[in-house]
Design goal:
- By secondary structure, the chain is an alpha+beta fold.
- 30% of the residues lie in helices and 36% in strands.
- The protein is built from six helices and 13 strands.
- Strands 8, 9, 10, 11, 12 and 13 form a six-stranded antiparallel sheet that branches. It has a five-stranded antiparallel sheet with strand order 1-2-3-7-6, with helices on one face. Strands 4-5 form a two-stranded antiparallel sheet.
- The longest helix has 23 residues.
- The structure holds cytidine-5'-diphosphate.
- Cytidine-5'-diphosphate binds next to strand 8, helix 2, strand 11 and strand 13.
Length: 236
């Protein structure tokens, strides 16, 4: 497999073509952004930590019946993934209230949510990723109704698997965001799962071990990601 030209560069990852049109290289950079790209910094080792973290989680999810785009780790900062047509919708599940839910509804930060809350957002920085529902997705043609149901179903299955994985390692999976894409007609989990796209708290102390450390200027961002990786057994 040969790496070819860059196809796309996002806020934290770049995508490169390969000599096989079915596969692309996902390259994890050290760039770290928050607030729709308004706050950007380079955090040393982040590309490597997130690439290896994501590989571990994607493999774990695949092994447990979730279709994912992940094929294999290529090197410290790059993975081979299926060349999908991405669905521009973010699927969020919340087990504990935090972040935008607290700002939007005025509920208490840290409140347990039972049953968990599911939300869709449109992936659009210029519009600040507005919240949407199934009707918007179908009417504006962002995904077919049956694929929307699959995304929702898979996102909840991921919740069951990852809540336990992190709980067994002494952490609370507060919330997370997933993105999906289409590959040869099927819906697959895409993008990444790393502490950049979820909230993880230490179960005892409630110390934040995720990107909120960057958003809130708490310091020790990559050290926290490495701690999470270490606790769940990601080889770094
Ligand atoms: O992060 P923020 O408070 O702005 O938004 P949220 O709606 O509370 O985010 C819920 C979860 O999805 C958090 O774990 C975020 O890190 C994640 N998320 C993300 O990874 N990318 C986005 N564009 C929005 C949310």
């Amino acid at each position: 497999m040969e790496k070819k030209q860059e196809l796309y560069s996002g806020k934290a990852k770049s995508v490169f073509a390969t000599d096989d049109n079915d596969y692309v290289v996902l390259s994890f950079r050290d760039d770290t952004s928050a607030f729709d790209g308004e706050k950007v910094e380079q955090l040393s080792r982040k590309g490597e930590v997130n690439n290896k973290f994501n590989a571990f989680i994607m493999q774990y999810l695949s092994d447990n019946g979730i279709p994912t785009h992940f094929e294999k780790l290529l090197n410290a900062t790059e993975s081979l993934v299926k060349n999908m047509k991405m669905i521009p919708v973010e699927c969020v599940v919340r087990n504990v209230a935090s972040g935008s839910l607290v700002r939007r509804l005025g509920v208490e930060d840290g409140m347990e949510l039972n049953p968990p809350v599911f939300e869709f957002f449109l992936k659009n920085d210029a519009l600040h990723d507005p919240m949407i529902n199934e009707y918007h997705i179908e009417t504006f043609g962002w995904a077919k109704a049956e694929d929307v149901n699959k995304m929702k179903d898979l996102t909840f299955k991921v919740n069951k698997l990852l809540k336990k994985l992190f709980a067994d390692a002494g952490m609370i999976l507060v919330d997370y965001k997933l993105e999906f894409g289409l590959f040869k007609g099927g819906v697959y989990l895409g993008d990444e799962f790393s502490p950049d796209g979820c909230r993880l708290w230490d179960a005892e102390t409630r110390k934040k071990l995720d990107k909120d450390r960057f958003r809130q200027g708490l310091g020790g961002v990559i050290e926290a990601y490495e701690e999470v990786a270490h606790r769940i057994g990601v080889p770094l």
